[in-house]
Automatic annotation (TrEMBL):
InterPro entries: Homeodomain-like_sf, HTH-type_TetR-like_transc_reg, HTH_TetR, Tet_transcr_reg_TetR-rel_C_sf. It comes from Marinibaculum pumilum. It comes from the Bacteria. This is TetR/AcrR family transcriptional regulator. Keywords: DNA-binding, Transcription, Transcription regulation. The keyword Metal-binding does not apply. Pfam families: TetR_N (PF00440). Residues 28-47 bind DNA. The keyword tRNA processing does not apply.
Length: 205
């Protein structure tokens, strides 16, 4: 890896940690540079301002997620995409927390945003939700809202699983297991298309 690329990777890692912990408003370029022993001039050589650095961090996370959720094992299946996002969120809690922070902290900046790094993921989920709901009890419902319900539940529970575990008087890993089971049940309900002849047989398998 070239020296310049290595420096960029270090900056992005430090910035992800800072933005996840302190949010966009609470993070400074000076603080990020200090965390990796880099002066402002060197940092600004790679990223001219905080907004550009923040966008680069979000884009790196979006690219990472896209690579994971586009694997053949995940495909276009809503179960697969949701399970992949849950696995990723558990393995990358810092990045998952930053995604949640972006939803909570972004309203003012949203009016000026020119790009949305997470939009391709949400479109992928929207398409999967639409396919999953087709012919079932959720057919006709807004697939993007279904997608946000799935992502929102995962982001909220994984980010707060230690607090949630204390409230539930259980272990954080158990919270994730219960979330996974609930997601599977909810997605099964979305995809429960009526079987041919079910009415004639009283709905029995």
């Amino acid at each position: 890896m070239a020296k310049g690329e290595a420096a960029r990777v270090r900056i992005l890692a430090a910035a992800e940690a800072a933005f996840a912990e302190q949010g966009f408003a609470g993070t400074s370029l000076r603080g990020i540079g200090a965390a990796i022993g880099m002066g402002n001039a060197a940092l600004l050589h790679h990223f001219p301002n905080k907004r550009r650095l923040y966008a680069a961090v979000l884009q790196a996370i979006a690219d990472e997620l896209h690579a994971k959720l586009s694997q053949p094992v995940r495909g276009a299946d809503l179960h697969g995409i949701a399970g992949g996002f849950l696995d990723w969120s558990v393995a990358r809690p810092q990045a998952a927390t930053l995604i949640l922070r972006e939803l909570l902290d972004n309203p003012v900046r949203a009016e000026r945003a020119r790009s949305w790094p997470m939009q391709p993921l949400m479109r992928q989920l929207e398409a999967a939700a639409a396919r999953a709901a087709r012919g079932g009890p959720m057919d006709g419902q807004d697939p993007m809202i279904i997608a946000f319900q799935v992502i929102g539940a995962i982001a909220y529970v994984t980010a707060g699983r230690r607090t949630i575990a204390a409230l539930m008087e259980t272990a954080p890993d158990t919270v994730i297991d219960r979330l996974r089971a609930a997601l599977h049940a909810q997605i099964d309900a979305i995809t429960a298309a009526p079987r041919a002849g079910a009415a004639a047989t009283g709905g029995q398998p």
